[in-house]
Structure formats: C-alpha cells, structure tokens
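Appendix B. Raw example, untouched.
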Amino acid sequence: MHPTLSSLGLPDLLEDPDALGRLTDEQLDQLASVREEAADALETDPNNEEHIDTVYLAHMTLTSALFLRALMVDVQPQALPPGAVLARSWNGGQLRLVSKADTADMLVPTTTLDVLNNSGLPAVAEPELSFDERPVRLLSLMDIPEDDEDSSDEFFGSFWRIAQNAFGDAICLDERADGVVVMLDKEWGYYAQQFVNTSIGHFLLCLEAWRAMEADTGDDVDTIIETFERAVERIDPAALTEGAFWSDCLDAIEEEED
C-alpha cells in the first residue's frame, strides 16, 4: 500500500467516520494525488494488484470523507413547506405521487414521507435523471455473492433508490442519515458515495432551480449560472460543498464555458 495511505491510518481509517470527517484539505489533496498516481501506473501495468488496491482505498477514503463533510455542514438548509405546497413550485414534468403503502417500510423522517406521498417525484428530470415509480431497496436490485451477503446487507440495507443517471449511478435516500439524498457510483460497485441533498424536498427544489437555469434564454451565461448557484446555496448549502453532486454539476458547466 502507498506510504501516504499508511500514514493516514488506512485501511482502518475507513471504519472511523469521525476521523474521516476530520481529514484536512491537505490530507484530501494527498489522497487525490495518490489516487491519480496509482491510476496512471495502472495504465502501464493494468493487472498490478497493489496499484488496484491503492486506487480503491484512496478513492473510497476521499469520497467518504467528502460525503461526511457535507453531512457535518453547520449552516441549516431552507425550511421546507408541506409536500402539497412544495409541488406547486415545480414547473417540470408531472410529479407522480408515491403511495403510503410503497413507503410503509421506509425508516425516514416524516417530512420525507410527506414529500413522497403529497408532492411526488418526476418521471425524468435534468441533469439526465430517470426516476423510479416508487422507492426500491437498492439491495433488492443487486446480485450479491453469498460470501459477501453479510457485509453487503450491512452497507446497502439502508438505501432506497429513487432514480438513476445516464451512467446507472443510483440516487438513493439513506435511512441511516435521516433520508439524505446520496448518489452511489455504479463503477465502484455502488460503494463510493456522493452527497446530493439534505432531503428529498431540497432535491426537488434544486432540480427546479436547474430546470429554471436551462430554461433561461438570457444572453449573460455567467449571470444565469450564478443565479442557479445562489439558489442552491439558499436551498441547501451542503449541496455546494466540495465533491457534492451539485458542486460537481457547476464545475462541469464552468469547464464547458472555458
């Protein structure tokens, strides 16, 4: 294993959420550098198990740390109206209500259930998201080897998939984190987590802000993007932390503009 990872306390660090959340910016930069270094080495030696393990550990540690950072943001998100009122601010495709029977087994806050049952979810929404008709336990959609069932049940058992993107990454509600919206990366076996929003209601508000940005026909692109960024910051400040879904979406837009 790479000496930098050992100095940070890996692999044991991955089992200590408090320590992961306390990693400094410098340490996160170190993790990113190690990941890139090992990934470059794999291009010339793709079967090198040491490089494979190093990439995996660095990536999982980095994504987990950034996810925990978002959860620990001090600034509170926007207060949500009741689900039925929230639906009135939605101007995208028709929202589909989720029945109470389909949410009966979900261990999430009542505000999350209210949004699902009284506001609903779209069938599709930009950026390139396709929604399930009802939340589905992610574990039920996965083919888990028998010798990995216990650990997989422990990790994936709390996730309810509500949507997926064009790459097959799963957008889920996490029971263990009070219904936080998280994206699980398919390429990494759904183990790599990315913070999306504090709740499903805040997710809908950010999706509507994205729709409004794309519908804006103004000539000043920078102002349009800044308006979206301010909207997300007002709705859910944690969604703009480093490595979060909406932060990455903004980075992608800015790269396209450059």
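End of appendix B.
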